[in-house]
Amino acid sequence: MTCTYVYAAAGPAARCYRESLHTSQPWQRPMEFLARSMISLQDSNTTVPTAPTVVELEKVLFGGKRFGNPVDEVWPNLFIGDLSVANDRYKIWKMGITHILNAAHGKTHCQGSHDFYGSNVDYYGVPADDSPTFDLSHYFLPSANYIKDALSMPGARVFVHCAVGVSRSASLVLAYLMIHHRYTLLEAINKVKEHRWIFPNRGFLKQLHHFSKRKTEINYFLLNKVLKCSFFIICAQQ
């Protein structure tokens, strides 16, 4: 996880690395990469890139088409949809869905179960309220891991839904793209919006924004530590 996230957050350091690959002395590349990376980070005061505010993200979400299909494929073999699709077992079968993540699980929301879908469909329920005060962030990582593990199976097709398919389910898919595909929140939103209109409520958007910000800050902190430790190790070996 560290290597994946740190490289994604490297910014100037990653550019230095790519440039260092063209040096005529291969044995100098690690040293050059580390030295130039540290200089780049010092020049920028290791500041974390400014992310769009929640209000700015809402403007992005509000743009483009609004509402559309009951279900859309937003990532290869990953679908977001509404309750009408979730309740249609024939449609689920016709789509070839193998895994269902219900982001509105519960008697007062969207009742789903293994019994309803049968043994050919794996079911995972998240009992979330579509309320700005509901803490959905507790489910970001478990849901992202569920989607990742499901899609790693040959022939898997994952359907993530809530009641309308624009807030709860969309938030969990955005978290998946951020966690397992190193997307920023803005990049994840734009990727999903290419295929479906989504609009997480402000509370969920704030939680995603905070999660994205913390992940980036941790990445930059780890990058500093990795570069400094590696620099001293290589210096000692010269």
From TrEMBL:
EC numbers, comma separated: 3.1.3.16, 3.1.3.48
Question: Would you indicate the residue range of the signal peptide?
Answer: none
Domain Tyrosine-protein phosphatase: start-end pairs: 69-217
Q: Which InterPro entries match?
A: Atypical_DUSP_subfamA (IPR020405), Dual-sp_phosphatase_cat-dom (IPR000340), Prot-tyrosine_phosphatase-like (IPR029021), Tyr_Pase_AS (IPR016130), Tyr_Pase_dom (IPR000387), TYR_PHOSPHATASE_DUAL_dom (IPR020422)
Give the matching Pfam families: DSPc (PF00782)
Residues of the Tyrosine specific protein phosphatases domain:
138-196
**Annotated compartments:** Cytoplasm; Nucleus
Alphabetized, the UniProt keywords read: Cytoplasm, Hydrolase, Nucleus, Protein phosphatase
* Any Gene Ontology biological process: negative regulation of MAPK cascade
Which cellular component appears as one GO term in the record? cytoplasm
Listed Gene3D superfamilies: Protein tyrosine phosphatase superfamily (3.90.190.10)
Q: Does the keyword Cytoplasm apply?
A: yes
Q: What is its main location?
A: cytoplasm
Q: Which residues form the active site?
A: 162 (phosphocysteine intermediate)
Instruction: Using the UniProt record, name the top-level EC class of this enzyme in a single word.
Output: hydrolase
Q: Which domain of life is it from?
A: Eukaryota
Function noted in UniProt: Dual specificity phosphatase able to dephosphorylate phosphotyrosine, phosphoserine and phosphothreonine residues within the same substrate, with a preference for phosphotyrosine as a substrate. Involved in the modulation of AMPK and MAPK1/2 signaling pathways.
Report what the protein is called.
Answer: Dual specificity phosphatase 29
